[in-house]
Structures are given as C-alpha cells and as structure tokens.
Amino acid sequence: MKKKYTPTDKLITKITGWVSGLVVAALAIWGIFTLLNFYKYEQTNDAQVQEYVNPVISRAGGFIVDVKFEENQEVKKGDTLLIIDNREYVLQQEQTQAALQRARAQIKVLESTTGTMEKEAASAQAKVEANKAKVWKQELDYKRYQSLYNEESATKQRLEDVKAGLDVNNSEYQASQNTYAAFKSKINDIQAEKTVVHAEITKLEALLNRHKLDVSYTVIVSPYDGRMGRRTVEVGQMIDAGETLAFIVNNETDKWVVANYKETQIKDMRIGDHVKIVADSYPDREFRGTIISLSPATGSSFSLLPPDNSTGNYVKIVQRIPVRIKIDGKRKDINVLKVGMNVNVYAGKKRSNG
C-alpha cells in the first residue's frame, strides 16, 4: 500500500530542508572566514593585558592610625593613603635637635674662649717684647760696666749688681715667652676641639635629616595617579618597615599585552607592526596595538627551573615567545581592559610577491 504524505508532513519537510540549508550555509561562511583569518593573521589566545602594578611599601614601622583609601579607589599623585603613629619618630627628632643646639652653643663658647685667649696671648706677646727690650738694655749696661771694671773705673760689686739684673731680666723674658707659648697652645687646643665639635654638628645634622625623613615616612602617599587594589590593612594594625600594605595600578604608563606566540609563528613579526586585539570580555569590540618588543628567549628559559635537554629524556615541544604589544588609543577608551584579562591577538602575516 503506497504511503501518503499529508500537507503537514510536506511543510515540515520543507522547513527542515530550509533550516538545514541555512545551517550548512552559516557553517560554510564561518569556515570561510576562519580560513581567511588563519590565512591573513598569526593569532593566539595565550595573551593577557598587563600594566605596572606596584606594591605600596611602608618605609617606617608602627601602628596605623588612619587609612584613607578604599578598594578599587581612584587616587591622584600625592594623595594620602595611610598614616602611621609618628610620636616615637618625633621624639627622636627633638632629641637630636636638642643635641644639635647644644653642639652649636658649644661652638659659640669655644669661639668666645678663643677670643679671650687671643687677647691674653697678644698681651703676653707685648710683655715678651718689653722684656726683650729690658734684656737688650741690661746687656748693654753689663758690657759697659764690664769695660769700666776692666779699666778699674767701676767696682766689682756694681758689676755683679748689673749682672744680677741681667739674669733677672733674662728669666722674666724666658717666662714671658713660655706664657705666650702656653696661650698659643691653648688656642690651638681650642681650634682642635672646635674641629671635633664641627664634626659632631655635621653628624647630628645628618641624623636630624634622617629623623625628619622617618617622620615623613609615617605619611604614605600615592606616588602617581592610579587605582588602588585590594585593601588588607586597618586602623590599629602594627606594621614593620618594608612591609607591603597594598597594591596600586599605575595610570600614568601605557597598557600593553603580552602575547605568547608559538616559535613557528614569529618569523615575519617585526617591531612596529600593528596588530588587532579582541578581549574575551568585549568580543564585539576591536582594539589596536603595536608590537614594541620580542622576548630575547622563550618563556621556559626564564622559568625557575629551565629545561635541560641534555639529560637524555628529550621530548620536542613547540616553545612560546613572549611578544610585547602596546595598546593604542586614548586612556579613557582602553581603561575597560584590566590587568590580567585574556585577549586574542591577531598579527598580520607578510606575504612575498613572488
């Protein structure tokens, strides 16, 4: 008995045929575009967006008294992020400042003492000159009386008196010279002491500047315009110098993509080539980029334990070469791309004319 098809069956068959045809056509178009892309581009999905993400590190230890940022907050250069209790650092600064004032006062005392000693030394020098004149005069008298005594015109007693006066004057002259030398020696000692105090002042000034730096380190500010990362600190927390307190993404530098291309794909890539970037988060939006560098070695060569192919168990694996690509465009247009996002990179293939 011959099977009869109802009008409904014919309609279903017709619709099914059209749907199948459309699916095949769509697959064919997709396949053609895919083949064209493979023909035109060297592409990879092993690529991520990168920016400079720097740690916010404390240069002073102490208790946190205020936290002035929240997670993901936009900050400007110089904005205060954290404040650390600075009382201990201020006390150290004041102690050093007091020691510095004392040393400077000591210099003034030594300078005053030096002035007094110089006046006394000048007086002693004048006395030396006076005694020298007396000795000269007494020597002339002694020579004159010596001649008179030899001619028997003067008595021996008178000659002895003149000789005694000459000896006294010589003693006074020598004493005044010693006094003058003592004053000069004291002046030299004071000058040496001033040198020591000046060295102490230089040391205290350096120490004071260091304490001022320590006080300034208790206020942690943003080093540039950026965006704060995850917040892990709170008021009352004790921190140490050198401790990482947060992370900040630098808004003042370019964004770039690190695309890990297979070693078989980079033959025609050159610095300055333009590429197409499509983010997984924004599949309908294209970004443009420029190749700015190719890694001098494969990614595995920079690993903690690079492979040693001389061990005898060598298995050939296609290696990846990191390619750094600057994302072109205005900052506000590319800010939608965040650090660590996965992207697909399409680099145009160069074709020879022959």
UniProtKB/TrEMBL annotation:
> Residue limits of the p-hydroxybenzoic acid efflux pump subunit AaeA-like beta-barrel domain?
257-343
Q: Spell out the coiled coil positions from the record.
A: 93-120
**Membrane-spanning intervals of the chain:** 12-33
Q: Does the record carry Acyltransferase as a key word?
A: no
Q: Choose any GO biological process term that the UniProt entry carries and state it.
A: transmembrane transport
Q: Which domain of life is it from?
A: Bacteria
Residue ranges constituting the Multidrug resistance protein MdtA-like barrel-sandwich hybrid domain according to the UniProt record = 56-249
Q: Which UniProt keywords apply?
A: Coiled coil, Membrane, Transmembrane, Transmembrane helix
What Gene Ontology cellular component terms go with this record? membrane
Task: Tell whether Coiled coil is among the UniProt keywords.
Answer: yes
User: Where is this protein chiefly located?
Assistant: membrane
Specify one Pfam family.
Beta-barrel_AAEA
> Localized where?
Membrane
Query: Which SUPFAM superfamilies did the record assign?
Result: HlyD-like secretion proteins
In what way does this protein cross or attach to the membrane?
Single-pass membrane protein
Q: What is this protein called?
A: Multidrug export protein EmrA
